[in-house]
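Protein 1 of 2
SEQ + STRUCT:
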Amino acid sequence: MVTNIETVYAVGDNAGTKIPKGLLLPRASVLAEAQGKVVAENIIKEIQGQEKTATFNGEGVCYMEVGDGKAAPVRSNFYAQPQPKWEFTPPSPEGFQEKHRFLAERMHAWFG
């Protein structure tokens, strides 16, 4: 039995993270990935005996594919004050290309 746990970390669907208005942060992979990077950095610092300084900024992007080779990037900041902010970009071929670049980057980062 482990009895000397100082910190418990949770990310993604396991974390009931509240945003300023009291609602829960959406359960989206882009947000879970960002949370995971923060947790990993803080665990490394904890192991090294350093101050944990990494924080999750509540920002993410998702892409709404609308057909005809177009997609609409939606950027969000769920921690913005006084309320969350969203930036909707109209669907375009450039948004579609951005979506596929983002997907290729994620696949390479996760699976090599």
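Protein 2 of 2
SEQ + STRUCT:
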Amino acid sequence: MNTYTITILLRIAAVLHLFLVCAGASMPKAVNLRAHLAVLPLFLRQLFFVYFSFIGLMLIGFGALTFLFAPAMAAGEPVARGLCVLLTAFWSLRLFAAFVFDVRPYLTNWIYRVGYYAINLIFLYLLAVYCFVAWKGGGL
């Protein structure tokens, strides 16, 4: 596979990060998060908000770095390859978490079910692309 093709695959991955941010923004309504958080102490509500915001900012950062530095990542430049290793680890753990949490009570309609499976396919795509680029580096 040539570096141009890898660059395209990485840019697709970058855009998928933005889709995940949009999906994350719709999640509070889908799971009635406001009601669940209302019974928690203020500190825990604030902590959850910080974590939720942090994850969103990280996804935006991952997407931006991937989009801007896709050619360097595809060429196997050392720092870009290190970023791919980090993202491989991140998406491996996130895909694992998808099987740990039981979301079935929240998949109340077909839209949520399709969305859930689509998101997991995105996780799998991101893992595959970053793993491939980290492994192959510039030796395409």
